[in-house]
Amino acid sequence: MTAPGTRAEASAEDTDDLDVEEALALVRDAHREPRDDSTDDGAGQASAPAGQSPGARPAERHRATPWPQAREAAARAARSRARRAPVSVPLGDALGLALAAPLDALTDLPSFDTSAMDGWAVAGPGPWQVREEGVLAGHTQPGPLTDGEAVRIATGARIPVDTTAVLRTEHGRIDAQGRLHTTREMLHGQDIRPRGQECRSGDQLLPVGTLVTPAVLGLAAAAGYDTVTVVPRPRAEVLVLGDELLTEGLPHDGLIRDALGPMLPPWLRALGADVIAVRRIGDDAKALQKAVTRSAADLIVTTGGTAAGPVDHVHPVLERVGAELLVDGVKVRPGHPMLLARTKDQQHLVGLPGNPLAAVSGLLTLAEPLLRTLAAHPAPEPYTLPLREAVHGHPHDTRLIPVVLRGDHAMPLHYNGPAMLRGVAAADALAVVPPGGARQGEEAELLDLPWATAGIGVCFT
């Protein structure tokens, strides 16, 4: 189920009105019917989720996880599985991946003495007699110079033997007799890049785990690499649930546009995943179970169907396939009914709520730490900024609020309901608001959005 404000999921999300939210939360805590997670296994027997005894009371099984612990559980789940074998990829395919082997120098850099500037290579003290033919980059070794001799040279060209220094073009002048003079003091070795100045063959340039940025690609190319050994991208598959979803045109007759189908694949790619498939399942439990059991992805992402409504099939399907629920609900708004399960030894499933902003919350809470860890990317350094406005909080749960960054403050955006994308579409980050809310000027932890960090994670193709 992937609909803004639809069916049972709407009751599990927050509103902008603190009094209403607090009342709803208290009513739910006191009077909510416990969800019966058991299903018929085909023989009339009720099957309990993995790790739970069949006789356990449903209310005792379901305990939402605090938001920080949920993120750590996702990272821990990725660490607990065997890492995929490193792969060798061409430089053009390595952007955003982590090095699985050190980048060692294959040669001296530079591999010969080169000119650092356009000008003249000179030998001995001036003035100098200038040769007729110059030296260009990429040409063979020029003949040696003798004292009192100079030759025109281009940046990057090989230095003739016995060169004293390179005289920059703007620091030299030619007299009427064709002799070269310097217009300022010149030092021995000036503007010459000696062989091995940057590194010697065999030096370690970058260690294992380094994120491949454009600069890393440039260094690898300069060092003579055609391929690099990296940790492969985690494979992700998206299963879009909900019979009420349209893929084109205007909403009509109770049908709505699917917002998550277009949004999730590029967002997952921006988080470092290789999205191998996007499948539209509808509200079909058998089709969902078939898709889950046949998936070859490292991470399956489902949209909607994680609550307890009549067509919320994710929990029953996970139970039937013998999955282990690692996180079943998170104390965060929006996004409370998200979940994380281990479906196979080397596969996990993140169940996102159907409301769009709630799904974003699930991505950043569960999918991002898991994918980051699978890809061997370093965790971002946490940072905070003061809030320019006060933010209402949930009485018990963390809230994630879209914000824009303005100077040294974070400005909360007002379109932050669970079914809304208008706020996050304009946002730079999500502010982490603790239970009870945050005052104006109070420091809030920020979660950067992948396209707002100016990093190489912005990989939408």
UniProtKB/TrEMBL annotation:
Residues 11-22 have a biased composition (Acidic residues). The keyword NAD does not apply. Its EC number is 2.10.1.1. It is an enzyme of class 2 (transferase). InterPro entries: MoaB/Mog-like_dom_sf, MoaB/Mog_dom, MoeA-like, MoeA_C_domain_IV, MoeA_C_domain_IV_sf, MoeA_linker/N, MoeA_linker/N_sf. Residues 237-373 form the MoaB/Mog domain. Its cofactor is Mg(2+). Residues 42-56 have a biased composition (Low complexity). Catalyzes the insertion of molybdate into adenylated molybdopterin with the concomitant release of AMP. CDD domains: MoeA. Residues 28-37 have a biased composition (Basic and acidic residues). This is Molybdopterin molybdenumtransferase. Keywords: Magnesium, Metal-binding, Molybdenum, Molybdenum cofactor biosynthesis, Transferase. It holds the Pfam family MoeA_N.
